[in-house]
Each structure stands twice: as structure tokens, then as C-alpha cells.
């Protein structure tokens, strides 16, 4: 009994320490953002005269509304199509038992090993030859392709566990393959689909590398990608830079707080399903 209590208190202490370490950078950003513009705080300290106007100034300087619009358009271009293609491929590989499914699935698994950094140079030249540089399509189209391995792997993990008797019963009632997919399996796959949608949204919204390499105009990047241009413009004004960074992080934080349970479920599904 005593040993169990000690373990419980030890676990809680470790969680508190981990939470403190995780929150400390954000606390430091927040305190620094409240210092007078142009000053350089020596450490994590609350300013004697908090400058809340730094957030309004950073909001205007970063053209935050335009950045939100750009990120939203990119998300709307990536997430729905990636969900559709990933679900179709995952259903074909995981449930229809099509010929050569193991080879196709292996190709997608190998795609999970490709780092963005390793393909950014050939991707740049390919996008340039397509005439898409400095457009939002330069971010949307590559992200759809780069997300496909994970999306297919995720949805295949769901469909492979669906009982064959369910499909056989639907076929006896006259359902074709499309009706089987759209009317039977897609409604049952909504938990997996919503979890995948949240993950794809967060990854797309926070996409940084492709945005700064393939798009020169900050107003056509994601919010995270626009942070590079904001840093270059206001890099010498530390409080304003910290205020802008917090504003850019705010939408992701809000989405996470709203869907935190679904986000945790997404991580657990990815670890338990095979």
C-alpha cells in the first residue's frame, strides 16, 4: 500500500516537472513580449510596466488576418484531399484484399522513411518546372503527396480490423464496392478519420520548411512559414518578435485545447492498431 502511494506521488512529481519544463519556454516568450519595445530582458522576469500593446503592434506588423486566411486556404486544399485519397487507398489495401496489396503497402511504408529535408532540393526544381513557385499550390500539392504514406498506413490499420462478415452481408443485400465503402465502412471509420484529420491539420498549419523554400511571399505561406519573414524584419526587436511568435502559435494552441481528447485518441489509435 505504501509502495503504491510512493509510486503515485513519484509519477505526479515527474508529470509536474515535465509540465514545468514544457511551459517554461512559453512563459519566457510571454514575459519577454510584455517588455518595452527595443529592450533586451536579462532573464525570465515580469516587467515593471507591461506593454500589452506589443501584441496589437505585432498583429498589425505581421498582417495576421492575411496569414490566417493563407493558412486556412492551404489547410482546406490539403486535408480533405489527403483524407479522401488515404481512405480510398487504405480501404483497398486493408479490406478489399486486392492483388499485390502487400507490395503496394510496403511502398507506402517506405514512404514513411523519407524526410522532408532529404527531398526538398529535387522537389524545388520539380515545382519550379511546373511553374508553381511562389503559389500556395507549391505547398498544397507536395504536402498531399508527402502525407499519403502516413494517411494510407493509418486508414489501413482501421480497415484491416473490420470483420469480413460485415462486407459479405452487404454484398448479399446487393451492395457494390462503392456502396460498401461509402455507406458501410466510411461511417464506421469516422473516429479514425477525425483523428487523422486533426493530425493532418496540425502538421499542415505548422508546416515551416516547404513554406519558406517554395514560397517567397510571406502572405502566401502558412503562419509558421511566415514567422521566418517576421523574424527577419523584427529580429532586433525581441519583445515584438516574441509577441508575434505567440500570436502565430495561438491558433494551433486553441485547436489543440478544443480537440485535445480527440488528439490523445489519435495517438493511442496509432500505437494500438496494427
Write a structural description:
The chain has helices spanning 2-33, 53-61, 64-94, 101-111, 116-129, 137-159, 164-172, 177-188, 190-205, 209-214, 223-234, 238-258, 260-272. It is mainly alpha-helical. It has a single domain, classed as MetI-like (MetI-like fold, Orthogonal Bundle), CATH 1.10.3720.10. Helix 2 (53-61) crosses helix 12 (238-258), helix 6 packs antiparallel against helix 9 and helix 9 crosses helix 13. The radius of gyration is 23 Å and the shape is globular.
SSE blueprint and pairings:
Elements: H1 2-33, H2 53-61, H3 64-94, H4 101-111, H5 116-129, H6 137-159, H7 164-172, H8 177-188, H9 190-205, H10 209-214, H11 223-234, H12 238-258, H13 260-272
Helix pairs in contact: 1-12, 2-12, 3-6, 3-9, 4-6, 6-9, 9-13, 11-12
Shape: globular
At the fold tier of CATH, the topology name is MetI-like fold
CATH class: Mainly Alpha
Structural class: mainly alpha
Distance between the termini: 37 Å
Let me know the CATH homologous superfamily: MetI-like
- The helix content is over 70%
Largest sheet: none
Low-confidence stretches: 270-274
The helix/strand order is HHHHHHHHHHHHH
Number of helices: 13
Q: Total number of β-strand segments?
A: 0
- The portion of residues forming beta strands comes to under 5%
Give a concise summary.
Helix content is 76%, strand content 0%. It is mostly helical and 274 residues long.
List keywords for this structure.
single chain; 274 residues; mainly alpha; MetI-like fold; 13 helices; globular; disordered C terminus
Amino acid at each position: 500500500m505504501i509502495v503504491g502511494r510512493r509510486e503515485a506521488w513519484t509519477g505526479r512529481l515527474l508529470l509536474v516537472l515535465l509540465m514545468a519544463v514544457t511551459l517554461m519556454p512559453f512563459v519566457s516568450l510571454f514575459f519577454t513580449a510584455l517588455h518595452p519595445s527595443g529592450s533586451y530582458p536579462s532573464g525570465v522576469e515580469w516587467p515593471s510596466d507591461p506593454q500589452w500593446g506589443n501584441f496589437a503592434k505585432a498583429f498589425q506588423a505581421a498582417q495576421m488576418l492575411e496569414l490566417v486566411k493563407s493558412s486556412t486556404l492551404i489547410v482546406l486544399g490539403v486535408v480533405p484531399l489527403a483524407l479522401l485519397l488515404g481512405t480510398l487507398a487504405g480501404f483497398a489495401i486493408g479490406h478489399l484484399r486486392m492483388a499485390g496489396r502487400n507490395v503496394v503497402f510496403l511502398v507506402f511504408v517506405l514512404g514513411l522513411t523519407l524526410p522532408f529535408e532529404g527531398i526538398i532540393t529535387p522537389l524545388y526544381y520539380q515545382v519550379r518546372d511546373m511553374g508553381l513557385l511562389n503559389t500556395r499550390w507549391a505547398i498544397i500539392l507536395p504536402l498531399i503527396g508527402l502525407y499519403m504514406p502516413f494517411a494510407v498506413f493509418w486508414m489501413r490499420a482501421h480497415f484491416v480490423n473490420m470483420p469480413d462478415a460485415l462486407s459479405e452481408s452487404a454484398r448479399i443485400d446487393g451492395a457494390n464496392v462503392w456502396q460498401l465503402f461509402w455507406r458501410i465502412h466510411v461511417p464506421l471509420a469516422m473516429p479514425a478519420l477525425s483523428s487523422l484529420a486533426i493530425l493532418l491539420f496540425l502538421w499542415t498549419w505548422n508546416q515551416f520548411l516547404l513554406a519558406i523554400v517554395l514560397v517567397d511571399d510571406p502572405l502566401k505561406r502558412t503562419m509558421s512559414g511566415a514567422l521566418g519573414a517576421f523574424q527577419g524584419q523584427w529580429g532586433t526587436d525581441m519583445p515584438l518578435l516574441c509577441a508575434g511568435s505567440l500570436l502565430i502559435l495561438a491558433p494551433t494552441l486553441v485547436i489543440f485545447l478544443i480537440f485535445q481528447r480527440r488528439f490523445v485518441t489519435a495517438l493511442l489509435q496509432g500505437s494500438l492498431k496494427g
